[in-house]
Amino acid sequence: MNAQKLLAEGLGTAFLLISVIGSGIMAETLAQGNVALALLANAIATGCMLFAIITTLGPISGAHFNPAVSLAFALRGDLPWKDFGPYVLIQIIGGILGVWACHWMFDQSILQTSATMHRTGVSQWFSEIVATFGLLFVIFGGLRSKPEAIPTLVALYITGAYWYTSSTSFANPAVTIARGFSDTFAGIYPGHIVMFIVMQLIAVGIGHVVLRILFAEE
After folding, report:
1. What's the topology of domain 3-214?
2. Which long-range contacts (CB under 8 A, 24 or more apart) does 206-209 make?
3. pTM exceeding the 0.90 threshold for the entire prediction
4. pLDDT grade, residue 217 (50/70/90)?
5. For the chain, first and last CA: distance in Å?
6. Of 64, 76, 111, 152, whose CB has the highest number of CB atoms within 10 Å?
7. pLDDT tens digits, residue range 52-105?
8. Which string of b and e fits 92-112 if b means at least 16 CB within 10 Å?
């Protein structure tokens, strides 16, 4: 396995979580209880970071930063299965390190467990299927029509999906796990993580069937 690719995936996922958690902490502090304003700041910061890390690291590792995306590429045969495990492991490690770095930056306890209890229920689980399927849709649609636009497509999609999905679009098992380690605005109670990930993986299965048909080369 290419160490450069693993470093890119780990560092990129760490920066992604820094943007998610850091902007959440800053937004919650400055918004003074205005949840809509905090979510807007959180979404914009995350979208900006996604554009930056996909643009810079895409040529190195493919810029997955997401086990669901890596699984989708592996199912298509575009990522060797021998590389899939290392990709997922480094994405999870990078995500957790990004969360800890954020806590340090904002002078919080580095080791935390989220107590955010509202991220559960059938509607939010279904929301994660929609969010993850939509993410794969813009990635593989972009690869089919305009590969150079993928950083913009993903950034815009996630920025919007923060608002039009009830779960605020986690759409990423590594992000979901890492956010369980932060008792902040962007956290998720650890007991709710498993079902989010199950829904994300279901979306990968749906996407593998539907998107291969939709974006098949004529």
Report:
1. Glycerol uptake facilitator protein (1.20.1080)
2. 206/129, 206/133, 207/72, 207/132, 207/133, 207/136, 207/137, 207/140, 208/72, 208/75, 208/76
3. yes
4. confident
5. 33
6. 64
7. 999 999 999 999 999 999 999 999 999 999 999 999 999 999 999 999 999 999
8. bbbbbbbbbbbbeeeebeeeb
Among residues 84, 86, 64, the alpha carbon closest in space to that of 74 is found at: 84
Taking CA atoms, 39 is separated from 19, 34, 128, 137, in Å, by: 13, 9, 17, 24
35 touches 24 (CB < 8 A): no
Q: Residue 153 corresponds to which amino acid?
A: L
> pLDDT digit string (tens) for 43-53?
999 999 999 99
182 neighbors 21 (Cβ within 8 angstroms):
yes
Cα–Cα distance, 55 to 66 (Å, whole number): 15
- What does the pLDDT look like over 4-17, one tens digit per residue? 999 999 999 999 99
DSSP 95-132: HHHHHHHHHHHTT--SS-------S-SHHHHHHHHHHH
Max CA separation in the chain (angstroms): 55
Which residue in the block uniquely carries the two structure tokens 């490690």?
93
Q: Measure Cα distances from 168 to 43, 77, 188 in Å.
A: 9, 30, 11
